[in-house]
């Protein structure tokens, strides 16, 4: 049985603000991260340091500029990744409800731990408790997740906090990250368009300063795309280990 094709739809809405120069600067950071390793190897230590420092410096400058002009935008992204034919709906949802394993499948994660609830007025608490109350008091789990974001040959450590709530078909994660970024990711196990197989559907809503969004969306797409694919590989491994090929 052939796997359903990967389908990805992206919906984005932004304020009436556009700057080719700012977009080009953000794109520079993405190109820096994608620099081939063999090209990095040919650079001197001084060149590597300057190049990586430039990427981090530009990112900081964009954040300061974003705070100054005050323009924010919200982007909604819907992505679907096919799950192996051997996967059952129950097994897939159980993996999503295993928050530690699920979060650690993100390739950029280097630390992931449970934390006490943040202040009651914080975005994470207000959003998650509101959802929990409307879902018959479903428990909320708060976490601190550290990721290592590539910046050319080096990396920058980013620490974010999240609130996770289980749902009948998956999980919802509210998050707050540095530089004014926050949002919500909902992961659901649903049937594919033909109703024959299962897909892992991610519905993401991200809000932040407009000038940072090209970088943020690029990182989100790559990191979470690989996370969804690793979910499929882990489910296949578990099914094979249980003899359910």
From TrEMBL:
Domain DUF7053: 73-233
InterPro entries reported for this sequence: DUF7053
A Pfam family this chain is assigned to: DUF7053
Region: Disordered, residue numbers: 222-245
Name of the protein in its database record: DUF7053 domain-containing protein
Organism of provenance: Phialocephala subalpina
């Amino acid at each position: 049985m052939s796997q359903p094709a990967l389908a990805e739809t992206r919906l984005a809405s932004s304020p009436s603000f556009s700057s080719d120069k700012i977009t080009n600067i953000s794109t520079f950071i993405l190109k820096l991260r994608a620099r081939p390793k063999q090209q990095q190897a040919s650079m001197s230590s001084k060149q590597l340091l300057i190049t990586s420092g430039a990427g981090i410096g530009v990112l900081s400058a964009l954040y300061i500029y974003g705070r100054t002009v005050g323009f924010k935008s919200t982007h909604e992204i819907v992505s679907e990744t096919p799950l192996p034919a051997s996967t059952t709906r129950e097994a897939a949802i159980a993996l999503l409800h295993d928050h530690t394993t699920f979060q650690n499948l993100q390739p950029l994660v280097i630390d992931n731990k449970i934390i006490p609830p943040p202040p009651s007025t914080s975005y994470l608490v207000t959003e998650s408790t509101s959802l929990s109350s409307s879902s018959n008091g479903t428990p909320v789990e708060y976490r601190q997740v550290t990721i290592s974001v590539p910046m050319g040959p080096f990396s920058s450590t980013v620490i974010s906090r999240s609130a996770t709530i289980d749902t009948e078909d998956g999980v919802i994660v509210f998050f707050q990250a540095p530089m004014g970024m926050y949002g919500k990711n909902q992961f659901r196990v649903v049937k594919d368009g033909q109703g024959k197989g299962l897909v892992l559907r991610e519905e993401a809503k991200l809000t932040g300063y407009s000038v940072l969004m090209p970088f943020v969306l690029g990182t989100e797409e790559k990191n979470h795309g690989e996370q969804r694919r690793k979910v499929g590989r882990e489910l296949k491994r578990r099914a094979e280990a249980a003899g359910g090929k």
